[in-house]
Backbone:
């Protein structure tokens, strides 16, 4: 951590107000970016995706639960894994309790992974999560929306984040957003990956308020310190599986 000047309260207020001007500039820029995001063109979804849920087979349209907006958190959990990615779980811990608030604004949020439903349910119970988590193992959803990759794609490289980034594994993190109109037509309106997911992690932004910040400098990968929530006292830190 860099050395800090120790000043009077009055001097601190002066410095803080100067910094607040930069924060307000960033807030206004973020508002403009959000407007531009909402103005992006849409793509009609014509493929009939069917997922495995706790109540049986569920179509993409049924995931909306009668609402017009759907947010999908793509959680990294390959069919042969026994646990979800610890970094994706870090995000899931953060959105676990916001589902009712989103529902109040005509928005449904779910998690989707390729692992079999039984594995998802087992891990969900372990983590104490209550959000809907569905398996896409029987369809192409993950591949079509850029978070799962074939061996050929991995070998070719540059397949992640709209073809801008090489991700060295079969699974990657992401968020996708969909809209359903009154006629039942579904449109893909937005997706983000890599550092685009950053703003959705509340814990990171609380850390950004502290003197040490995220404190990730010097780590082999920024998220090497992250563990599953129930492993912080028992398991040594391991390399993150989604560090792009």
Residues:
């Amino acid at each position: 951590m860099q050395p800090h000047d120790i000043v009077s309260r009055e001097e601190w207020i002066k410095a803080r107000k100067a910094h607040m001007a930069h924060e307000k500039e960033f807030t206004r820029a973020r508002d403009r970016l959000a407007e531009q995001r909402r103005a992006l063109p849409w793509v009609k979804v014509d493929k009939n995706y069917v997922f495995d849920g706790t109540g049986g087979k569920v179509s993409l349209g049924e995931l909306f639960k009668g609402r017009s907006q759907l947010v999908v958190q793509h959680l990294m959990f390959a069919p042969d894994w026994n646990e979800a990615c610890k970094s994706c779980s870090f995000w899931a811990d953060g959105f676990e309790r916001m589902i009712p608030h989103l529902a109040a604004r005509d928005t449904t949020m779910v998690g989707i992974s390729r692992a079999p439903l039984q594995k998802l349910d087992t891990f969900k119970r372990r983590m104490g999560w209550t959000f809907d988590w569905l398996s896409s193992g029987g369809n192409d959803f993950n591949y079509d929306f850029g978070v799962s990759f074939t061996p050929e794609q991995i070998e070719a490289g540059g397949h992640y984040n709209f073809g801008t980034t090489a991700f060295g594994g079969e699974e990657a993190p992401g968020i996708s957003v969909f809209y359903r109109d009154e006629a039942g037509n579904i449109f893909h309106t937005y997706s983000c990956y890599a550092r685009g997911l950053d703003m959705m992690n509340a814990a990171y932004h609380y850390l950004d308020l502290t003197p040490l910040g995220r404190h990730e400098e010097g780590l082999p990968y920024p998220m090497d310190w992250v563990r599953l929530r129930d492993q912080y006292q028992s398991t040594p830190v391991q390399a993150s599986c989604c560090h792009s």
